[in-house]
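User: Teach me something about this protein's shape.
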Amino acid sequence: MNRDTSRRAFIAGLGVGAAALAWEEKAMAQQVQIQGFEKGVTDTEAQKRWKPISDRKIRVGIAGYGVCQFGAAFGFQNHPNVTVAAVTDLFPERCATLAQLCNCRKTYPSCEEMIKDDSLEAVFIATDAVSHARLAIAALKSGKHVASAVPAVFGSLEEAEELYKTVKATGRKYMMFETSYFHDDLYAMREMYKAGLLGKVVYAEGEYFHFSVEQIDSYKGWRVGLPPQWYPTHSNAYYTGVTGLPFTEVSCMAMPSIVDKFKPANNRYKNPFATEIALFRTADGGMARMAVSWDTPGDSGEKGRIRTQQGTYYGSFATEGRDIKVPVMTRPPLPPGVEAGGHGGSHGYLMAEFVEAILANRKPLVDISQALTMTAGGIVAHKSALKGGELMKIPQYPL
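Assistant: First, the predicted structure itself:
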């Protein structure tokens, strides 16, 4: 029996048959067009050097298999230390497809129901962005470790504070899956910074340019009219993902968009902007320009660069002749069977980092402090744009 025949038999056995198959084919067709989902190259030679840190298996529940298909995209089902023990999606046909892809027989009608399952040790929340914080808080309070797609919270500093307090109170691991953290360039920047080769970051730039993002289908239309700086982490990672440090204040400039969906009367956010350019003050005294744009055709993607006291990193490290020995920076090996995946080959690395943080009982890379400084920084930036660029303080979330 080939894989396609096996898949069809499995889905039919779940009782939704043709509807699930139709959903999967439609979603896969749209995913091909979504910017940034191109898969990175998996280093199969490096995988031969991978060493397990434990023989324990973590029972994980996965929530969400929408247009982005994130529930299955990060490879939990392929990690040797993971059993995907439950999945959920509000749409039965999507839930069935997710179950099949994750080799999982247990399904729930909602994430709220799934997190009541005491056999689960961790959950991955890949639902609509509006629900990330609410579901993460509920899962943490139920005693589970939480991985969340971006952003950590959606436009609400009150939710950010509640999520922060919940992580601290429960002692559970929380990690936001910010894909820029494992781009080849940002990974190299972070390792060089940690090794003391860069000194302070004087100036950083990050850019998330995604033309017509509001046209991607979304649950209850949450992307329509989306304030750009409410989805800021792909760009903000090019400072916080390098240094681990927060932003302290921001001035953000914007101009009203000519796109109809970004007229205040045409979206739920009363948002007039589809491009917002934020200038942040950083915790170590430097500056960062972080741009998010939905309405400017042309150059696109998630990228950034840094200028430091010792050199500039923009694709490679330039030192103006200074004698600085730069080591080769390669991402760590993934477990056999785990692909690097989409968003510049970052998916598998984020998942593996979360799993290993649980196994080793250590802080995950994109912890609650870093997740919230990147997310809240954008929320305040949008407030600043609405006030003509007023300089505003950003809440701090120290650990």
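Now, about its shape. The chain has a mean pLDDT of 92. Residues 368-386 form the longest helix (19 residues). If you'd like, I can walk through any region in more detail.
User: That's plenty for now, thanks!
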